[in-house]
Amino acid sequence: MLAPAKELDGVLLIDKPSAHTSHDVVARLRGILRMKRIGHAGTLDPMATGLLVILVGKATRISQYLMSVDKEYIGTIKLGASTNTQDAEGEVLETRPVPALSEADVRAALNGFLGDQYQMPPMFSAIKIAGKPLYKSARAGEEVVREPRFIRISQYDLMRWASPELDFRVLCTKGTYVRTLAHDLGQRLGCGAHLSALRRIASGNLNVSRAVTIEQLQKMSLPEIEKVLIPAYEAAPSVALGG
Q: Which residues are annotated as catalytic?
């Protein structure tokens, strides 16, 4: 049911479905909650599912803090094919045979990404250069000079290996492009690769296990919605909101 008009405050954890942009989710929530003061703390690509941290009312003030925390993902990488977007939504640019890799080989390759490093942002991204999003340049067939970004990969674990696919779990700093990790893994293995599935399971101390779906939220009464809202001081304990 629709919530009655009331100014709510707090952090709402949404389990984002695939084929929805983060902006789509915010727009739907503005309709459900009948509020305009709603934002998010870190986007997910349309293909990705999982934790989308939604900021409601005064909690929008802690956006920068919540965006700066480490993120945790699980996903699937498919070896043998590179795409222009580095994920399954793009056009296949090249296919190559996948070498006979053991589980130990794959684990070693993933371990090679651990630690501090610089990552080149993909052309199909929302980063603006000279005021123009990179994905618009990419769609026009243009290649733009980008600056690599500092990232840190704390964990990069192999969960399943069934050639040509592998399931992984990664813990990384903000701004890390997981599809670029997939692409770069394929380059290191000499066969190409792309990200075929991605799910964010945690952002800092916030976990998808506490999230609700948009459909669940639509059926909630106002008291039920208030119950799932996380107070800003709990989501960001080191930040003082003020009045």
A: 45
